[in-house]
């Protein structure tokens, strides 16, 4: 996985509270970094949680997270959180994540979200407006979007 495999990235600096006494980032914080990256991805795509993603009593819920640790980040490192949607199904989508320091891949992973009714948490189709925004942002061909 290379940085060029992603259309979007978001820079952030490791804060003191995210590192242990040796200055190494605690592993749980990488999921927060990924979440910040996904939030900024939505924003760059023009789809915020208060917009179409949460319309009509529905929302996206994380159902699977997988992170693979390759090398540690340290206090005060500048990181780039790379994000892309690798699969867009009827009611779910798979994000791929790459967290880099310069060109070095520190952590890679995937996060799967399901679009669902907020009260019942039962899956529902991803809104067409959101789907079109993803296809346009990622420059996916419609046939590249899986059902």
In short:
The chain contains two helices and five strands.
How would you portray this structure in words?
With 147 residues, the chain is α+β, with helices and mostly antiparallel strands. The protein has one domain: Hotdog Thioesterase (Thiol Ester Dehydrase, Chain A), CATH 3.10.129.10. It is built from 2 helices and 5 strands. The chain has helices at 29-45, 128-138; strands at 8-13, 58-69, 78-88, 92-101, 104-117. The protein is globular, with a radius of gyration of 16 Å.
Topology:
Elements: E1 8-13, H1 29-45, E2 58-69, E3 78-88, E4 92-101, E5 104-117, H2 128-138
Antiparallel strand pairs: 1-3, 2-5, 3-4, 4-5
How many strands?
A: 5
The dominant shape is globular
What is the radius of gyration computed over CA atoms, rounded to a whole number of angstroms? 16 Å
* Biggest sheet layout: 5 strands, antiparallel
Q: What is the overall pLDDT average? A: 88
Based on the coordinates given, report the CATH architecture: Roll
What percent of residues adopt helix (DSSP H or I)? Answer: 10-25%
The H-and-E topology, N to C, reads as: EHEEEEH
């Amino acid at each position: 996985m290379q940085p060029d495999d992603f259309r979007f990235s978001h820079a952030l600096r490791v804060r003191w509270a995210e590192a242990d006494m040796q200055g190494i980032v605690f592993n749980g914080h990488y999921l927060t970094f990924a979440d910040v990256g996904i939030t900024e991805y939505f924003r760059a795509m023009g789809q915020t949680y208060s917009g179409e993603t949460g319309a009509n009593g529905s929302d996206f819920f994380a159902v699977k997270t997988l992170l693979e640790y390759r090398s540690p980040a340290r206090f005060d490192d500048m990181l780039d959180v790379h994000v892309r949607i690798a699969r867009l199904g009827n009611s779910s989508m798979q994000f791929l994540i790459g967290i880099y320091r310069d060109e070095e891949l520190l952590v890679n992973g995937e996060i799967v979200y399901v679009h669902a009714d907020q009260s019942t948490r039962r899956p529902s189709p991803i809104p067409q407006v959101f789907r079109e925004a993803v296809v346009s942002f990622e420059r996916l061909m419609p046939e590249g979007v899986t059902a």
